[in-house]
Design goal:
Shape: globular
Helix content: 25-40%
Structural class: alpha+beta
Number of helices: 8
Distance between the termini: 36 Å
CATH topology of the largest domain: Aminopeptidase
């Protein structure tokens, strides 16, 4: 019989030790409870002292991000700790029936989970690519993202803080930032790559390949692997990642509970 505990200082290390056995699978939980504790709430299911699953709620983003990772017999209990308001949930595909019973109006998207290691990587280098570092770079990133209709544009101040904390690479054409990719989690075991975006009028020119390649190259100098998630029907993006060497290792569900957002 399992029991559910809120993760606190008295049991936190036990959870971390369990997650560390497969950091890539549990990368968000492993990172958040150690590096973002002020924004992270977690409930863990234990059976005979072993971690059998968890639900994590991360609140530093525009909408809360909820991660549910467990077997189906535990999910019914853990999902009760999910928020009732708008959020994004990430779950294994086998938990979809349970999620839909709890949140019948939620919209579901399938994401491919892709990974690359140094021996399998091919890098595409260009003088057009460099890491974003300055206030002017942050301003150009804000301008680039203002063309993205599916996300809220942040302030220049926000992007100054972002590029000071995260490795973000951009492609510049005639001084304009036209494409970028970054890493939002950096661990010795894996860097998570994300935020890949190209201004629509500059699409299909190989710029996303250059930006993703650059941040992946830095990742593989510092970690055992680089990983990312991409919508399973985003064939053009998948082709880009496969060129660099990423291979599909699994699937996750990206579930929109009332936010209107898509992956």
């Amino acid at each position: 019989m399992f029991r559910i505990e809120k993760v606190k200082e008295n049991n936190k290390q036990r959870v971390i030790d369990s997650l560390q056995l497969d950091v890539i699978r549990h990368v968000f939980a492993f990172y958040d409870i150690q590096h973002e504790p002020d924004y992270t709430k977690m409930y863990a299911a234990f059976e005979n002292g072993s971690l059998k699953g968890y639900i994590l709620i991360y609140t530093a983003l525009e909408f809360p991000s909820v991660i549910l990772e467990c077997e189906s017999n535990i999910a019914e209990k853990l999902i009760e700790y999910a928020l009732e308001n708008r959020f994004i949930m990430h779950v294994p595909p086998n938990l979809l029936p349970i999620v839909k019973r709890k949140f019948p109006n939620a919209k579901c998207y399938v994401e491919d989970w892709m990974l690359v290691k140094s021996d399998d990587a091919t890098f595409f280098r260009s003088k057009l690519v460099r890491r974003l570092r300055t206030e002017d770079d942050a301003s150009k990133l804000a301008m680039l993202l203002s063309s993205r209709k599916d996300r809220t544009t942040g302030t220049v101040k926000k992007y100054i803080e972002l590029i000071s904390k995260q490795p973000i690479y951009g492609v510049f054409v005639n001084g304009e930032l036209v494409s970028y990719a970054g890493s939002f989690i950096q661990l010795p075991q894996v860097w998570m790559i994300g935020g890949v975006y190209t201004r629509p009028k500059h699409g299909s020119k190989g710029y996303a390949t250059l930006a993703t390649s650059a941040v992946t190259e830095e990742a593989l100098k510092n970690a055992e692997a680089a990983a990312l998630f991409v919508r399973s029907d985003n064939y053009s993006a998948i082709k880009i990642y496969e060129k660099i060497g990423y291979k599909k290792i699994g699937e996750k569900l990206w579930i929109d509970a009332g936010t209107g957002m898509k992956p």
